[in-house]
């Protein structure tokens, strides 16, 4: 009942946006709400079901975005010819060096292995740089204004979504293997660090996805507005609905995304619910509620944690790929921890840790507020400052600073919920 | 072995070259890393004290530094408007006590209003981490709301203690050594603050009671130690550390709210490398992280040119990694240390 | 435990949360006042009912008392609420009913810190020393509430436990089990308490060390300091007890002198193994 009511409230909020502002804004909120819900679902899987503290959501989301470029953009043959294979070879070399170091560490006797591993690692690094750098220079020299990168595989963009999930899962495996496998658990700092590194790589390795020069004009799974406006049958249908062609085309495109995203969300939500109530889900909760007992019963806690960390991160990767597809461009500098890591945490806590529907609700609700706090703040500040003299410095400063209100509001919401409804709006069970 | 190459000065054998290399090294690596390391150490001390005594990692620490520095900057502007100056030192040094007072009030207010409730509920530390995320959002928003998200330069002191030109004239070396006054101030201030902190923790009754509370909360209670007083003193010390660290960083580089938020990673890395909860570890960690960050992202060409014979002179910049990867450096150091010493370098020497 | 509204969901992340050292007690809040209540035993927890936090009651109208110069022991089966009863006397949990009186004053509303000032010294069963601090610092922390010169008291403690003087610069966590127990008792004695409360002082130490500890405790009691003690080794405890309480499920089951209870058939059958 409570679940239905709260979801109805969110729906009402979005519809109200449509009526009061515009249907375009409402659909923008809805689409990003759907994406946010999937991110929240991923974090909820990790925190809610296993108590894993992932503060690197941003990194996995960004990997999803990278997957879109790597999958859907057409390859740049000149760049491949110039140095693409060399870059690949360098990466392979780097990988070999890492694997060799690990193997050497495990195989060699205690005495000299430190030195051996250091030699392999340092030598490997210099070799890697020696092979990589000329290749990178060559690739980045190819028409830098338009390309300067290797491009992708030119596959359908929808394929990028699962690829984003796989990419995130792969990185999560490495992080989890290291951070959860240590004698003590250091997941939080590991994810915090790796997220920054992923963003740094995406900003600096121009050969990969053009770095801060951004990749724009990514392929879309839905038609382009201009094509729709050019189609006479579309214009006719729009006209019969009482809409002008431009508005109708933008709405149609956004609705297209909404439908696609809804399908993905529903599928993932159903899977998550099934998993939660399966023997596997019960085992995860048993581990969470009493690790010692579960361990005593022969459950491999670390392996289970690794599993769920990978799954949750994969969801964030999928969501990240969907978001980049929606934006139609990859802009590495837009990834900020407050927006992509901590805001998702607010969604999960507000929605209800451990409850999948709660996470989805939190995703929608918090995203709605994130977007709407600014206009509301502007309106409130307008009233507050209405008594002040025009042109006063304080008034100008206050009106100017409204944009920062949203951070403050998110903090207040998180703290209020933690204090007065610590289990979230939709508590677990 | 062309004879022509051997004529003239033999590079690498000249003692002046070795000196030049040393000066270049000091100028571009040692001095900046010392200053940065001091700033990180002060930041990490704050994190480690909270971790040791309140038992959680404070995600709001970067933003506490930002808000404290902001207060200091506002007071500095006020002092400047009144014509007060500490020339040749930056006026901000005069404003630091006000910054500390303001920040301590804010942080103590936050504790009363927010954190204390969870202590009374015996909430697990992880919950306090989530709470500190909320506080982080609020402080972050407040800072941007008041001073805006842009860069603020508030250093009005003398720029250099020794400028590169003076140094060259003084020594006759090719390579200049510049010592910014802010760097000198940073290191001196850090030494004073750290000495005071250690004296306080190890020699005073209140300091010992903080260590006792960190070690065993219930037993501290049984000994008549008032937990709320320990927590209050801790927040005040942490405010002081955060404001000093933030102001020194701002003087040395510049103040920008987002940069301070991002300092969270190297600061956490420093505290964890040293062993969370250990003040000595926080200091060691700060310098380890700072020296590796600066060292690995520095282009060594200059130093190498002085030291190596001409034939071996490097063609590239000899930069191991671009400066944009400095976070990666802190992180890799962190992972290596944790792989070998899961509790950090200074295990068991907790607050 | 990861339940409750503010549980950790099994999180073990060392990089964000410090394990260990966190308090379990839900002590009486500060700010309460004592009031005169003359008469009755020197220290008495009377008709105490309560439990931890919002959990179920563990104590049910339980009464514990000790007179000047006496050794009183609390014995009983596992989970009988022996330690809880002692913690209740000390104010480490909120009582729903009942009162605690010390030396003619009702101190039910006082916080544990305030009770220390009133002259209570308490040695918990586990985690009863500051492991990361030196032996001497442990004793100093014991004297935390004292503003006067406590070097004399420290010398007395060193006289009572000579080994501690030898190891006074060592971290207490590095000592052996018996030595740690001595530090724990020494810490409590530093306040010059009017009553000493010991929660299973011999738990986990070898029989020889146990005998020695009992001797020291008797020695302390002979100086006129009343001792209230929870003991697992019921027979030995009853032998030295002036007064004994047998608790079962948080209720007083038997009360009497140590000798009486040792002679009591029912007590022998249920707790002393015949």
UniProtKB/TrEMBL annotation, chain A:
GO cellular component: plasma membrane
InterPro entries: ABC_transp_permease (IPR001851), LivM-like (IPR043428)
Lipid bilayer topology: Multi-pass membrane protein
Residue ranges crossing the lipid bilayer per the database entry: 28-45, 52-73, 85-105, 114-132, 152-174, 186-202, 255-276, 306-323, 343-370
Intracellular or extracellular location(s): Cell membrane
Keywords attached to this entry: Cell membrane, Membrane, Transmembrane, Transmembrane helix
GO molecular function, one term: branched-chain amino acid transmembrane transporter activity
Pfam families: BPD_transp_2
UniProt name for this protein: Amino acid/amide ABC transporter membrane protein 2, HAAT family (TC 3.A.1.4.-)
TrEMBL record, chain B:
Keyword Amino-acid biosynthesis assigned: no
Record GO terms (molecular function): L-isoleucine transmembrane transporter activity; L-leucine transmembrane transporter activity; L-phenylalanine transmembrane transporter activity; L-valine transmembrane transporter activity
A cellular component term, taken from the record's GO annotations: plasma membrane
Taxonomic source organism: Salipiger thiooxidans
BP terms from Gene Ontology: D-alanine transmembrane transport; L-alanine transport; L-isoleucine import across plasma membrane
Membrane topology: Multi-pass membrane protein
Family: Belongs to the binding-protein-dependent transport system permease family. LivHM subfamily.
Keyword annotations from UniProtKB, A to Z: Amino-acid transport, Cell inner membrane, Cell membrane, Membrane, Transmembrane, Transmembrane helix, Transport
Transmembrane segments: 21-54, 66-86, 92-114, 126-147, 183-201, 230-251, 320-340
Compartments it resides in: Cell membrane
UniProt keyword annotation of rRNA-binding present: no
Protein name: Amino acid/amide ABC transporter membrane protein 1, HAAT family (TC 3.A.1.4.-)
Pfam hit, one: BPD_transp_2
From TrEMBL, chain C:
Keywords annotated in UniProt: Amino-acid transport, ATP-binding, Nucleotide-binding, Transport
GO BP annotations listed: L-amino acid transport
GO MF, one example: ATP hydrolysis activity
SMART domains: AAA
Feature: compositional bias, Basic and acidic residues: 1-12, 26-36
Record-annotated ABC transporter domain positions: 43-274
Pfam families associated with the record: ABC_tran
Region annotated Disordered, chain positions: 1-42
Domain of life: Bacteria
Similarity remark: Belongs to the ABC transporter superfamily.
Protein name: Amino acid/amide ABC transporter ATP-binding protein 2, HAAT family (TC 3.A.1.4.-)
Species of the source: Salipiger thiooxidans
């Amino acid at each position: 009942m409570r679940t239905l009511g709260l979801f109805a409230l969110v729906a009402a909020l979005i519809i109200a946006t449509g009526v009061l502002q515009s249907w375009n804004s409402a659909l923008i909120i809805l689409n990003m709400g759907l994406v946010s819900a999937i991110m929240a679902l991923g974090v909820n899987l990790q925190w809610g079901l296993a108590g894993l503290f992932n503060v690197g959501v941003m990194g996995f989301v960004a990997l999803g975005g990278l997957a879109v470029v790597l999958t859907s953009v057409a390859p740049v043959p000149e760049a491949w010819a110039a140095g693409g294979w060399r870059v690949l070879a360098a990466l392979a070399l780097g990988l070999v060096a890492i694997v060799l170091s690990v193997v050497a560490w495990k195989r060699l006797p205690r005495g000299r292995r430190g030195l051996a591993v250091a030699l392999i690692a340092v030598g490997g690094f210099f070799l890697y740089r020696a092979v990589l750098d000329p290749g990178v220079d060559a690739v980045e020299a190819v028409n830098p204004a338009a390309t300067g990168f290797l491009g992708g595989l030119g596959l359908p963009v929808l394929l990028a979504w699962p690829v984003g999930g796989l990419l995130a899962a792969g990185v999560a495996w490495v992080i989890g293997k290291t951070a959860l496998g240590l004698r003590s658990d250091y997941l939080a700092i590991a994810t915090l660090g790796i997220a920054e590194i992923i963003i740094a790589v995406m900003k600096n390795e121009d050969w990969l996805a053009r770095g801060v020069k951004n990749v724009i004009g990514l392929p879309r799974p839905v038609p382009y507005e201009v094509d729709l406006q050019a189609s006479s049958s579309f214009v006719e249908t729009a006209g019969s609905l009482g809409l002008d062609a431009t508005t109708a085309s933008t709405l149609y495109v956004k609705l297209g995304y909404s439908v696609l995203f809804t399908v993905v969300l529903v599928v993932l939500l159903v899977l998550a619910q099934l998993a939660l109530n399966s023997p596997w889900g019960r085992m995860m909760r048993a581990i969470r509620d009493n690790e010692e007992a579960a361990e005593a019963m022969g459950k491999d806690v670390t392996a289970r944690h690794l599993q769920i960390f990978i799954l949750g991160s994969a969801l964030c990767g999928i969501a990240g790929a969907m978001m980049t597809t929606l934006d139609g461009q990859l802009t590495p500098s837009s990834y900020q921890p407050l927006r992509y890591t901590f805001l998702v945490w607010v969604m999960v806590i507000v929605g209800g840790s451990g409850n999948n529907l709660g996470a989805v609700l939190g995703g929608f609700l918090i995203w709605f507020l994130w977007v709407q706090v600014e206009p509301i703040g502007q309106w409130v500040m307008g009233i507050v400052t209405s008594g002040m003299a025009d042109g006063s410095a304080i008034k100008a400063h206050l009106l100017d600073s409204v944009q920062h209100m949203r951070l403050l509001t998110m903090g207040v919401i998180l703290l209020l919920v933690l204090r007065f409804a610590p289990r979230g709006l939709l508590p677990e069970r | 072995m062309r004879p022509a190459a051997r004529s003239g000065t033999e590079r690498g054998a000249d003692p002046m070259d070795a000196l030049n290399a040393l000066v270049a090294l000091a100028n571009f690596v040692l001095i900046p890393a010392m200053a940065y390391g001091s700033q990180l150490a002060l930041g990490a001390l704050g994190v480690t004290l909270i971790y040791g005594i309140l038992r959680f990692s404070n995600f709001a620490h970067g933003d506490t530094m930002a808000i404290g520095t902001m207060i200091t900057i506002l007071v500095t502007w006020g002092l400047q408007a009144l014509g007060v100056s500490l020339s040749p030192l930056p006026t901000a040094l005069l404003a630091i006590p006000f910054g500390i007072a303001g920040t301590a009030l804010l942080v103590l207010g936050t504790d009363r209003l927010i954190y204390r409730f969870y202590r009374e509920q015996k909430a697990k530390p992880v919950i306090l981490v989530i709470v500190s995320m909320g506080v982080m959002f609020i402080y972050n928003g407040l800072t941007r709301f008041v001073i805006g998200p842009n860069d603020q330069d508030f250093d009005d002191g003398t720029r250099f203690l020794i400028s590169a030109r003076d140094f060259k004239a003084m020594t006759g070396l090719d390579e200049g050594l510049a010592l910014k006054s802010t760097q000198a101030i940073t290191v001196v201030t850090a030494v004073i603050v750290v000495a005071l902190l250690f004296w306080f923790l190890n020699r005073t009754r209140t300091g010992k009671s903080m260590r006792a509370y960190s070690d065993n909360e219930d037993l501290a209670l049984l000994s008549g130690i008032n937990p709320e007083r320990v927590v209050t003193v801790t927040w005040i010390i942490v405010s002081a550390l955060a404001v000093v660290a933030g102001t020194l960083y701002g003087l040395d580089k510049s103040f920008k709210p987002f940069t301070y938020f991002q300092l969270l990673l190297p600061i956490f890395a420093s505290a964890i490398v040293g062993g969370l909860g250990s003040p000595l570890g926080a200091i060691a960690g700060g310098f380890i992280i700072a020296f590796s960050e600066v060292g690995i992202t520095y282009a060594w060409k200059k130093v190498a040119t002085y030291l190596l014979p001409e034939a071996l002179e490097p063609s590239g910049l000899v930069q191991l990694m671009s400066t944009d990867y400095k976070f990666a450096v802190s992180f890799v150091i962190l992972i290596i240390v944790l792989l070998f010493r899961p509790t950090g370098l200074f295990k068991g020497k907790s607050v | 435990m990861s339940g409750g509204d503010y549980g950790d969901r099994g999180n073990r992340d060392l990089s964000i949360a410090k394990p260990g050292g966190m308090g379990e007690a839900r002590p009486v809040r500060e700010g309460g006042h004592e009031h005169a209540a003359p008469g009755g035993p020197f220290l008495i927890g009377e008709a105490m009912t309560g439990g931890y936090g919002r959990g179920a009651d563990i104590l049910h109208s339980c009464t514990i008392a000790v007179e000047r110069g006496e050794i009183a022991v609390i014995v009983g089966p596992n989970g009988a609420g022996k330690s809880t009863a002692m913690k209740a006397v000390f104010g480490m949990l909120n009582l729903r009913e009942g009162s605690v009186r010390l030396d003619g004053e009702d101190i039910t509303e006082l916080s544990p810190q305030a009770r220390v000032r009133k002259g209570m010294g308490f040695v918990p069963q586990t985690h009863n020393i500051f492991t990361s601090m030196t032996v001497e610092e442990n004793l100093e922390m014991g004297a935390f509430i004292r503003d006067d010169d406590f070097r004399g008291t420290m010398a007395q403690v060193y006289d009572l436990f000579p080994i501690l003087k030898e190891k006074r610069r060592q971290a207490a966590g590095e000592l052996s089990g018996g030595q740690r127990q001595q530090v724990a008792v020494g810490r409590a004695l530093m306040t010059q308490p009017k009553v000493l409360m010991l929660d299973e002082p011999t738990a986990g130490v070898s029989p020889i060390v146990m005998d020695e500890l009992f001797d020291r405790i008797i020695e302390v009691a002979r100086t006129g300091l009343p001792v209230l003690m929870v003991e697992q080794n019921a027979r030995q405890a009853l032998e030295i007890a002036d007064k004994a309480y047998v608790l079962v499920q948080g209720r007083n089951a038997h009360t009497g002198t140590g000798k009486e209870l040792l002679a009591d058939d029912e007590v022998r059958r249920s707790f002393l193994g015949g």
